[in-house]
Design brief:
One of its GO terms (biological process) is lipid metabolic process. One of its GO terms (molecular function) is oxidoreductase activity. Keywords: Lipid metabolism, NAD, Oxidoreductase. InterPro entries: NAD(P)-bd_dom_sf (IPR036291), SDR_fam (IPR002347). The structure is a single chain. This protein is about 50% helix and about 15% strand. It contains 5 helices and 5 strands; from the N terminus they run αβαβαβαβαβ. It has a 5-stranded parallel sheet with strand order 3-2-1-4-5, with helices on both faces. β1, α2 and β2 form a beta-alpha-beta unit. It is globular, with a radius of gyration of 16 Å.
């Protein structure tokens, strides 16, 4: 497969509307920064509301923040709806939000509350994001790219 050159990559994102969960720090923030540099408009959906202003200021005009707890279906739905309301489309959803939890070596010591929390943030949020973005894509008769990241 042919490698894309930088100008072709920029062309892929130019004018696109992207929703990125977990984008106020780490991989999500770096992704948002790169997407904006390449011409995309980015909706940052994150639970860390205290970083909203700092994130919007750093990423400037092409970034908008919406508070989003990815363990709540309604928050994910609201984030997708917000992107559509603000930009009239959604081209890319990047399900980046995630948490890490170091498990115990023995199943008998597994903390089921933490297991459920990790699954809700790392797996269920991605499924809900895919579900909601797909519904919008079907309704608008458009194509939405879906990216899920779990590290």
């Amino acid at each position: 497969m042919e490698q894309l050159i930088a100008s072709e990559l920029v062309a892929l994102l130019e004018g696109k509307v992207t929703l990125i969960t977990g984008a106020v720090s780490g991989i999500g923030r770096e992704t948002a920064t790169k997407f904006i540099e390449d011409g995309a408009k980015v909706v940052i959906a994150d639970i860390q509301q205290e970083l909203e202003q700092e994130t919007e200021n750093e990423l400037e005009l092409n970034a908008t923040f919406i508070a989003c707890n990815v363990t709540r279906e309604s928050d994910i739905s609201s984030a997708v709806d917000f992107a559509i309301y603000k930009y009239n489309k959604l081209d890319i959803i990047y399900n980046n939000a995630g948490i890490a939890y170091r498990t115990t070596p023995s199943i008998v010591d597994l903390d089921l509350y933490m297991f459920d929390r990790v699954m809700a943030v790392n797996v269920s949020n991605a499924v809900e994001g895919i579900k909601r973005a797909s519904r919008v894509s079907f309704l608008l008769q458009t194509y939405t790219r879906i990216k899920t990241l779990a590290i």
